[in-house]
Amino acid sequence: MSVPIFRIAIIFLLLPAMAFCITVEVLGASPMLRHQVERLVLDLSESELGVEVITEEVCSLLRDEGYLSPEIAQEESMLIIDAGNQYRIAEIVVEVEKPLTESEVVSLISVRQGDIARVSTIESELGKVITLLHNLGYYHPEVDYKLRCVSDNRVDLLITVESGSPGYIKDIR
Asked: pLDDT band at 54, cuts 50/70/90?
């Protein structure tokens, strides 16, 4: 199977009298992702940002789409983006302390085995756990996650939930 290559020609306007052209190649990506990268690069180029900032933003976008190990290289006027493999969640492992249980955390979040490992989705779903703990009176919970690579395109999602101590209201007058 051949790897699709998408080329995007972008003109960066640095100063009114100066402009340069950079070509962007996206390797191993779907047409939808290519469009997202193209849109992002165009938007950022209008903001007159440097190539380094654009590179960081493209990496962030790729991670949000499950491409956890993108490689980006710059060769003269060409930015080569190798998206790599799109990772899926193999297993969800939860370490949690009271008042919640592992099954409560798993049922609360809408991330499942086989889903694409989208970083932004995982982070927003874990926000639900924090909100629930706040509603239960735990005002300083720590909810964290790690993605552990288990194969070329599969990761385990390791979630740690530390509820901390509940808050109490005293001396109401």
From this structure: confident
Locus of tokens 């990496």: 59
Q: Tell me how many helices (H) and strands (E) the chain has.
A: 4, 7
- From the list 24, 72, 14, 7, the residue with the least C-alpha distance to 45 is 14
**Contacts of the segment 41-49: beta carbons below 8 A, 24+ positions apart:** 41/8, 41/10, 42/10, 45/10, 45/11, 45/12, 45/13, 48/12, 48/13, 48/14
Which domains are assigned to the chain? 5-82 (no CATH), 88-162 (3.10.20.310)
Give CA angle at 70 (64, 71), nearest 5°: 150
Instruction: Look at 68 and 81; give whichever has higher pLDDT.
Output: 68
Higher per-residue pLDDT: 150 or 47: 150
DSSP 8-state code for residue 117:
-
